[in-house]
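[worker-b] picked up task from shared queue
[worker-b] task type: protein-ligand structure
[worker-b] ligand name resolved to LARABZUK; SMILES cross-checked against name lookup, match
[worker-b] sequence length check passed
[worker-b] input payload:
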Amino acid sequence: MKVRTKICGLTRREDVTACAEAGVVYIGLNFFAKSPRYVTPAQARMLALEAPVGLAKVGLVVDADDATLDAILDEVPLDMLQLHGHESVERVRWVRARYGLPVMKAVGVSEAADLDALARYAAVADQILVDAKPPKGAILPGGNGVPFDWTLLDGREWATPWMLAGGLTPQNVTEAIKRTGAVQVDTASGVETAPGVKDADLIRAFVEAAERN
Ligand SMILES: O=C(O)c1ccccc1NCC(=O)[C@H](O)[C@H](O)COP(=O)(O)O
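[worker-b] inference finished, payload out:
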């Protein structure tokens, strides 16, 4: 099966073009104000309008309330919402129903016990982002460039589509896919030259390495 790629935290027009040319399936637009990858709704709209048909625009939020989501969705034509905070199962249900968009819930993993939460969210979300738990003291809940122990996923299956994230790079993504059986992979820092600044060659290398399986 052809592996589908997501590049998260785009801030520049040329990065949208690079993703489209490389055959990326999803781009992430980050609305978490503390992130170096943050974009305002106006910037996100400009980037979203640059994306050709077939390149899905995913809006990343962290514990956003309805007013914040309303303001984003009034301005930005998004195809999916990525909830990357401490949103409850009930909140995931609510957001899906209120906005009528598919919801991907991110779950941080560092030990086997974290997988229980994955199963709970898989029952209500359209997709699950299986990400590394942020290292102690990290400011960001994601995008930290740190992989988790992929063997924790051995023998695990979810009926809901899922995506692997956390420290994936052009160098390790082929191995990560082999080890976990992921058919969707996501990276933010792994294709950057500086936080929020993507690199077209790294994006192309990431997609090629992901599709090499
Ligand atoms: O990337 C960020 O700055 C960020 C901030 C707050 C919440 C989530 C964030 N990124 C989430 C992503 O979707 C990343 O792609 C995912 O965590 C993997 O990041 P990385 O380890 O840098 O590839």
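[worker-b] attaching auto-annotations
[worker-b] Strands lie at 4-8, 26-30, 56-61, 80-83, 103-109, 127-132, 162-164, 184-187, 192-194, 197-198.
[worker-b] releasing lock
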